[in-house]
């Protein structure tokens, strides 16, 4: 047993790390992909960070819940973009945890997008985007594709 003991801790740590990685990718394997329309409230600046901070217009409006923690589900609207389907103060299967304040739903995991180095030239200076987000049946979200929509409107 003494020979196994020094290797046990690193092996367990590696297994836990691999488990977390698989859990994150399981969102894409088992989840549904939605496309959201987003606006950047702080333009991308490669000198001050590699994140774009996003707001979603479809998350605004009067909801029939109290301010605080809420759970939401999504549906695809007629225009092809995702909107909120259901908002509840109580957890439900498929519900994503969010915060509701000042008539706005905030989902922490969707409020910022890490920009990969090869994407920077395509989004620099842009303010409107399309974001593909995988939503797992257990409520976890994973944004994975960010595209500028400004070239389309010019």
UniProtKB/TrEMBL annotation:
Protein name (Swiss-Prot/TrEMBL): GDYXXLXY domain-containing protein
Annotated keywords: Membrane, Transmembrane, Transmembrane helix
Top-level taxonomy: Bacteria, Bacillati, Bacillota, Bacilli, Bacillales
Record Pfam families: GDYXXLXY
UniProt keyword Membrane, yes or no: yes
Membrane-spanning parts: 7-30
């Amino acid at each position: 047993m003494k020979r196994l003991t020094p290797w046990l801790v690193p092996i367990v740590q590696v297994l836990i790390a691999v488990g977390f990685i698989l859990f994150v990718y399981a969102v894409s394997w088992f989840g549904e992909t939605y496309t959201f329309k987003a606006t950047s409230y702080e333009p991308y600046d490669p000198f001050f960070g590699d994140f774009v901070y996003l707001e979603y217009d479809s998350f605004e409006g009067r909801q029939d819940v109290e301010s605080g923690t809420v759970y939401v589900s999504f549906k695809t609207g007629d225009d092809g973009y995702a909107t909120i389907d259901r908002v509840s103060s109580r957890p439900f299967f498929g519900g994503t945890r969010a915060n509701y304040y000042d008539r706005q739903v905030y989902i922490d995991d969707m409020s910022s997008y890490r920009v990969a180095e090869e994407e920077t030239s395509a989004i620099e200076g842009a303010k409107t985007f399309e974001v593909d987000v995988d939503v797992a049946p257990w409520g976890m979200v994973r944004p994975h594709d960010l595209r500028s929509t400004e070239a389309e409107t010019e």
